[in-house]
Amino acid sequence: MDDTLPLYPGHGTDSATIQKMNDVSPEMKPASAPSSLLTQTTLLLGPENGVTTCPFCQALVRTEIKHTTTTRTHTLSLLYCLICCCCCIPFCCDSAKNTDHYCPSCKKYLGTYEK
Ligand SMILES: [Zn+2]
């Protein structure tokens, strides 16, 4: 009777284990993105010029800023126009615009402060 028993009763289990390991292995890979520099820079950006270390030229600089009108600026303009016919208000007010920061040394784009 013993001869009829399978020599490797766990054979099916082994292949299942290997399949499971293949499923797990992609998750085992470290997904560490070297984005610490970018995160640091973003934290320092504000609505006004800010002193920061440029990640491109490593210089301590005061950022140059440019205000950019966004879709929301035009939406606000339309809204003001409908309410009180003062459609120019959002374009005079920087609070409705995003602030782009640039490095004055290497002219690289550093980030955007969004309202
Ligand atoms: Zn720079």
Spell the H/E element sequence. Answer: HHEEEHHEE
Strand order of the largest sheet: 3-4-5
In percent terms, what proportion of residues is strand?
Answer: 15-25%
* Shape field: elongated
Mean pLDDT: 73
Enumerate the distinct ligands: zinc ion
Number of strands: 5
Residue runs with pLDDT of under 50 for 5 or more positions: none
Q: Counting H and I runs of at least 4 residues, what is the number of helices?
A: 4
Sheet/helix structural class = alpha+beta
Radius of gyration: 29 Å
Major pleated sheet? 3 strands, antiparallel
In short:
This protein is α+β, with helices and mostly antiparallel strands. It has four helices and five strands; from the N terminus they run H-H-E-E-E-H-H-E-E.
3D structure, described in words:
The chain is an alpha+beta fold and 115 residues long. The protein has a domain of 73 residues. The chain has 4 helices and 5 strands; from the N terminus they run ααβββααββ. A 3-stranded antiparallel beta sheet has the order 3-4-5, with no helix packed on it. Strand 1 and strand 2 form a beta hairpin. The longest helix is centred in the N-terminal third of the chain and has 18 residues. The protein is elongated. The relative contact order is 0.16. The mean pLDDT is 73. It binds zinc ion (ZN). Zinc ion (ZN) binds next to loops.
Question: How would the blueprint of this fold be written?
Answer:
Layout (H helix, E strand, L loop, with lengths): L10 H18 L7 H9 L6 E3 L6 E3 L1 E5 L2 H14 L4 H4 L5 E5 L6 E5 L2
Antiparallel strand pairs: 1-2, 3-4, 4-5
The chain binds zinc ion.
Keywords: Membrane, Metal-binding, Zinc
Membrane topology: Peripheral membrane protein
Pfam family, one: zf-LITAF-like
